[in-house]
Amino acid sequence: MAESDYTFKANLGTFSIEAHGPKEFVQPIYESLKPLLEKEIKNFLKTFKPSDIPDEKKRPEGGGFPRKASITDFYEQKKPSSDIQAAALVAFFYSEMAEPGEQFSFIDASLLEKGFKACSHPMPENIPQTLRNAKNYGYLDSAGEAGKFKLTPTGYNLVAHSLLTGEGDTASAKKKRPKQTRPNK
């Protein structure tokens, strides 16, 4: 596209117009449509309600997660197979789906314990270690303070996509390797 090329696009309902070319061609088209566009914008603003904007947290047509799901329902839907997956799920829920007064941008041992109890997930012996393990898997990252973690894009994708399809990690399915012994000298 040459530097002197201009583009004008307008959509009004099912009507659409696009003009592309030199300024001398595009500008008169724009000027002739400008009063109509201004009138349509004013009419639109008279009838516009903020509730007309779709809430990105509500379930979209093709799926997604409703904002008002309980952590228990979400846990049952996702069925994490390990403490590490469950930790990512709890972090996801409290950062993405919880009600505004219940949302947290980080997760710590007390919030993980609260989430596990709400879901009836078996309590791990060492909750802080579970958070560190989830960090080692790349699902959580340090939130800047000791013991506080935030969900990573990998953790988000695990919960939003992999657990839904049953792919998940294999943290709970790993078999222990036999200990290697060193030959005595």
What can you tell me about this protein's structure?
By secondary structure, the protein is of the alpha+beta class. The protein has 2 domains: 5-52, no CATH class; 71-165, Orthogonal Bundle (Arc Repressor Mutant, subunit A), CATH 1.10.10.10. The chain contains 6 helices and 4 strands, in the order E-E-H-H-H-H-H-E-E-H. The protein has helices at 23-47, 71-78, 83-97, 109-119, 127-136, 153-165, and strands at 5-12, 15-22, 140-142, 149-151. The strands form 2 sheets. A two-stranded antiparallel sheet has the order 1-2. A hairpin with a 2-residue loop joins strand 1 and strand 2. Helix 3 (83-97) packs across helix 5 (127-136). The protein starts with a strand and ends in a 20-residue tail after the last helix. The relative contact order is 0.11. Residues 56-63 and 169-176 have low confidence and may be disordered.
**DSSP strand count:** 4
CATH superfamily of the largest domain: Winged helix-like DNA-binding domain superfamily/Winged helix DNA-binding domain
Low-confidence blocks of residues: 56-63, 169-176
Distance between the termini: 76 Å
Could you say how many structural domains there are in total?
2
Strand percentage? 5-15%
Report the CATH architecture of the largest domain.
Orthogonal Bundle
The top-level CATH class of the largest domain is Mainly Alpha
Give the SSE layout.
Layout: E1 5-12, E2 15-22, H1 23-47, H2 71-78, H3 83-97, H4 109-119, H5 127-136, E3 140-142, E4 149-151, H6 153-165
Antiparallel strand pairs: 1-2, 3-4
